[in-house]
Design a protein that fits this description.
By secondary structure, the chain is α+β, with helices and mostly antiparallel strands. The protein has helices at residues 16-20, 66-75, 123-133, 171-174, 235-243, 255-260, 291-299, 303-310, 340-349, 369-380, 420-427, 442-453, 457-474, 509-512; strands at residues 43-48, 80-82, 88-90, 93-98, 104-109, 153-156, 159-163, 197-203, 207-212, 226-231, 249-250, 267-271, 276-281, 315-317, 356-362, 385-391, 409-414, 477-483, 485-489, 493-494, 514-515. The strands form 6 sheets. A 7-stranded mixed sheet has the order 8-9-10-1-11-19-12, sandwiched between helices. The protein has a 4-stranded antiparallel sheet with strand order 4-5-7-6, covered by helices on one side. The protein starts with 15 loop residues before the first helix and ends with a strand.
Length: 517
Amino acid sequence: MKRRTFLGAAGLAVGASVVAGCGRPRTTAAPSVPAGPPRRGGRLRVGMMGAGKSESFNPSGATSALINMAMTCAVYDSLVDIGPNMEIRPALATRWTSGKDARTWTLTLREGVTWHDGKPFTVQDVIYTLRWMADPDNQLSVSVANVDLDHVKATGPHGIVIPLKSPDLLFPQTISACWVVQDGTTDFSKPVGTGPFIFASLDQGRQSVCRRNPVYWDKGKPYVDELVIQSIDDNMARVNALLGGQIDVLAQMPFTQARAHASSGIRLLDTPSTASQAFYMAVDRKPFDDVRVRQAMRLLVDRRQLVDVALFGFGTVANDLFGKGLEFYADAIPQRKRDVQQARALLAQAGYADGLTVTLETAAVAPGMVEAATLFAQQAKDGGVTINVSQVDATSYFDPTLQYLQRPFAQTLWAGFANLANFYQYAVLPDGYGNETHWTKEQTGVQVAAAMAATRESAAQSAWLAVQQEQWDAGGYIWWANVNNLDATSSRVAGITPSRYLALGLPSGLANAYFTA
């Protein structure tokens, strides 16, 4: 995973009051949840940022928008799940083991599972899914890039051996993106899964409807009879729909609205997450092709102010690296701090002693992005850098067929990665689908491969440190914040556990939801 699973709450326009304010909002206690077993029944209506004509139940598109992720998790199951604290949990696979070299993995599949059309779930469905994912046009292909597909084999009706091209200690996390599709599936217009909800309808750009799976393998779940996911692109309309009772759950509450409505009787689901926001510089485009310019830009950022103002405190300071909280993240690298004097010296060495003017493209596609761009422009003036902020269309900002991946200086937010390997394969390596910084250093691929192939934790830690040190020293990202997951529900909804992994407690959050009254 996971390109833009965060896309759900557009940032609000920057105004003087936003730039002047800072600090995390003080919230009141959420209404208490009644004791006892969850209630059954009801129609759960979830309001989310839509994805227009790209809304789909095809798991391959789950990484392109949070709404697609929610629909995928409703209908399909993965081999393993990622829990609220990033723990690996059984799903369609109940057990996984490997030899000492972490190169061959044996999975035991769950028995007694049926597809929504009544067919039994079999090992052949998993083999088909792995090969389906490997198609270069499949957005999930990175998750099986290391699988030796020619030698995957069944060991019985509920066993499968998955050999790898090179060792991978974290393979269970890697296949968390493996939503299993039925053997032979090519058409996803009427999806058939094994998940908690059964597909009923999809009106792209408006809503999807799913009904409770009465024979779901996770006994008793889901609790609601019907799940309706509504596309509501406007921030205020989405918040007002929750306050007015037109929806029951709001994905990715805008930070400014969380402050304003903290005492309105709604429940805020707030938790630190592995999501991060960044400015990024294309390392092959002037002036960012000079590493001294990239280093100077990083030194001009006041990360604490950005978190307090642009995110209203719903996050923590990042250190120009993605993956805080993931295994093998380089906590040993010292926190980079603002140093205007050093930034000016580096710019002078690069030939910009008289100043530098650049354009930063932004869009209201995630909470705080536009606000952060405006504030960073103010901060950069201290170093003699003029940043002209250009706000562009949010609906196409991350469209790879348009300007995405072609911008020399822009913003991004990544979320939903279960391990560092997935992120670096997807976002940093030269052939990655989301190589925003145009990083082409072949040695990085060698380093990532070595880190993945390490069979001892100490060796893996050392290898991943080398990968991250290179990016911290010379990469094109300015990671300034680790962003909280912040959702909201009506006081009648319970069961959704805030997760560090994804919004709405996904992948299992909506199956756990129930009405208290």
